[in-house]
Amino acid sequence: MKSEIILDDRKIGKIAFELLSKVKRGVEGRRELNKGIRARCRGMYSFFYYSGSLPTLAFIYSKAGEDLIKTTLTRMKEEEFIPPIVKDEDLSYAIYGSLICCFLNEIGVNTDGSLKSIIDVFGEPKDEGTYILDYQILRFAKWIRKFGESLFTGG
């Protein structure tokens, strides 16, 4: 792991809110996509809690596909988020995966959105940094759940 930054919970919450607000502006008026994003925000936290980061991210990548996550991540880095035109369910997983990638980049753990870069981030299974990173992602997912439920109400 390249960085072991441990952020204050308020900082993690602020990052989550800013990212979700950007996504919200980009998907305004897309009712089914809003519902899908809300479902991902609500449901993925428990995946991270019970299974850990790498298995959960592998699941997210299996649902969205690596190319869609990389495309979505690139668009999320732009001034205004304009989502790719794909099926709403696939896009909701890609957005969630991209949120995690944006968070990793924010805390200094660089990922380009490729599955290989995600796997590389986690290094050796017993590495202390992996546990710290798992915990940071879990805290981020908790904020995503809280803000996602309030921001994405289906409209």
UniProtKB/TrEMBL annotation:
GO cellular component: cytoplasm
Protein's organism: Candidatus Methanodesulfokora washburnensis
Family of the protein in this entry: Belongs to the CRISPR system Cmr5 family.
Keyword Cytoplasm: yes
Residues annotated as transmembrane: none
Superkingdom of this protein's organism: Archaea
InterPro entries: AF1862-like_dom_sf, CRISPR-assoc_prot_Cmr5
Keywords: Antiviral defense, Cytoplasm
Any GO BP annotation: defense response to virus
Protein name per Swiss-Prot or TrEMBL: CRISPR type III-B/RAMP module-associated protein Cmr5
NCBIfam families hit by this protein: cas_Cmr5 (TIGR01881)
Location in or out of the cell: Cytoplasm
Keyword Magnesium recorded: no
